[in-house]
Design a protein that fits this description.
The protein is an alpha/beta fold and 208 residues long. It has a single domain, classed as HUPs (Rossmann fold, 3-Layer(aba) Sandwich), CATH 3.40.50.620. Helices cover 51% and strands 15% of the residues. The protein is built from six helices and six strands. It has a six-stranded parallel sheet with strand order 1-6-5-2-3-4, with helices on both faces. It is globular. The protein starts with a helix and ends with a helix.
């Protein structure tokens, strides 16, 4: 009768050890996937001044606050695309993001900001199916094979974006939109989530 509590304790310890082991394994696999994508994307990211001319800048969504304002990283992506347009590096801009309940509208918010930054409405196109990196590449990029594109996103996300779009034989290079020093806790979280996000994207790519 006295062994039952001990048995429960053993089960809890074993379950805890299993969870730790699985978490560690996921971290190793995710880190490996992220490094693989970084290697595949090596040499394909440019500074704004050295960026070659392309037909289109593709801006990946990155969240909108409940107030309707873009998050800082989304603001920087749109501002980078607007600068590329002003410099004649691209002929047009695609705002790719998701649309949800309660007026949530990434592409619309991005387009409004770009207009405020001087991009004419005729140069802006909206992709409302871009609910993920893979969705943007599988949707808009794959459907416009004649376009040469600049992918506009932050450096932490660029390898995954380049890898995804190149799976569709797209002629793409990247421009990093890191226009400020982001809070360290946010930057650490973004890098951490790239592991599982990279595993998911690899799985999607294998199933294509």
């Amino acid at each position: 009768m006295n062994t039952y509590p001990g048995f429960q304790g053993t089960i809890r310890r074993n379950v805890g050890a299993l969870i730790v082991a699985l978490t560690a394994l996921a971290a190793v696999i995710g880190g490996g996937a992220a490094r693989y994508m970084a290697a595949a994307a090596h040499g394909r990211t440019y500074a704004i001044a050295q960026t070659p001319h392309r037909t289109t800048a593709i801006v990946f969504g990155a969240g909108v606050w409940p107030s309707g304002a873009p998050t800082p990283i989304l603001f920087d992506r749109v501002a980078t695309a607007a600068e590329l347009f002003a410099l004649g590096k691209v002929d047009g801009i695609v705002m790719s993001g998701g649309v949800g309940p309660g007026g949530y509208d990434e592409p619309g918010t991005m387009a409004h900001l770009a207009a405020q930054l001087g991009v004419p409405a005729g140069a802006i196109r909206l992709d409302t199916s871009g609910t993920s990196t893979w969705a943007t590449c599988a949707g808009w990029v794959a459907a416009h094979p004649a376009d040469t594109a600049l992918l506009v996103t932050q450096a932490y996300h660029m390898p995954r974006a380049l890898f995804a779009c190149r799976r569709f034989d797209a002629d793409v290079v990247g421009v990093a939109a890191d226009r400020r020093r982001y809070p360290p806790v946010h930057a650490a979280w973004w890098r951490l989530r790239e592991g599982p996000a990279s595993i998911k994207l690899l799985w999607q790519a294998l199933g294509r």
